[in-house]
Design goal:
Elements lengths: L2 H11 L14 H10 L6 H13 L4 H12 L7 E7 L6 H16 L3 E5 L7 H5 L7 H10 L5 H7 L1 E2 L4 E3 L11 H14 L2 E8 L4 H9 L2 E7 L2 H16 L1 H4 L3 E6 L9 H10 L4 E4 L3 H4 L11 H19 L4
Parallel strand pairs: 1-5, 1-6, 2-4, 2-5, 6-7, 7-8
Antiparallel strand pairs: 3-4
Helix pairs in contact: 4-15, 5-15, 9-10
Amino acid sequence: MAQQDVNHQNTARRPDYTGVAGTGFESEVQRRQRLLRSRPAESWPRRIARTVWSMVGSDDYPEQLSEAAAEVQAAVTTGRRILVTGSRGGGGKSTTAGLLARIFATVRQEPAAGLDLDPGLGTLALHAGAADAPSLEDFASQLRRADSLDQAALAAMLGDAGGGLYVSGSRGNRPTVNGSTLNDVLTSVGRYFPVTTFDGSTGIRSEESSWALSRAHAVVFAAPATVAGMEDLRWYAGMWRSNPELADIPLLAVLTAVDGRAPFDPDTEAETFRRHGLEAMHLPYDRHLSAGLQVDLSLLAPGTRLQATRIAARALQLANGTVG
């Protein structure tokens, strides 16, 4: 088959994300994204039942959420950098990174940054809701050309995800930045944003991961609550303890539930890891998060929002060197 025919077939199979040009109508892909993005974690009967119960019963959820949020609002002396990484794709790494970045921006009520370090087709900007965010390479290029910098100038160079969150976007399998450029990005962002979340590449052996690890104040390791995911976590935890270059970097494991009907309970498995000396928490399955699109905290199940806020609080405590 001629190359031109192959290219035509590949183009024909590619989903249409652009809508119908000049008509204002959305494409089928856009329609599905719109519906899923606004889908709440709980069904409407469950939401009504919870609302009624909150009016007639006793519910300490608001108090617990307020306590967790207060810890997320802890003061920082200099910009804190939190790296989110994982061992395999589909384990919740980018979802966790986007969720934490959103919580830091919303709860702290001050600008927060999220940088997508994945050299491939990263999805941090998708989870943040800034589809047109520039890649790390484009952001670094703007930094080099800037005459002067302040927080407003940096924010304008990144994708505006709303609510005080500014992010970089997918690098499109075209990573070109080197260590020197990465250092320039780090210095600038860390100077003007109190908390920056890095969505790292899968694994810790890439140049981006090595750079981020050497400069992170804390690392969140997202692992799916599956046999393979938990085996990966055990291996990485052992390697972390035995490697002098990593042992001093606080590590927080987050076991994610990627399937609501999975045989393993991430909360129970996290408790098992804690008994063996590993700092571990869990992120429950959530129908809103499972769509893989923009994270809206108001659409999360209450239990998910509370636990995610607690994870953000603990990650910041570790980054601040707070024990307890």
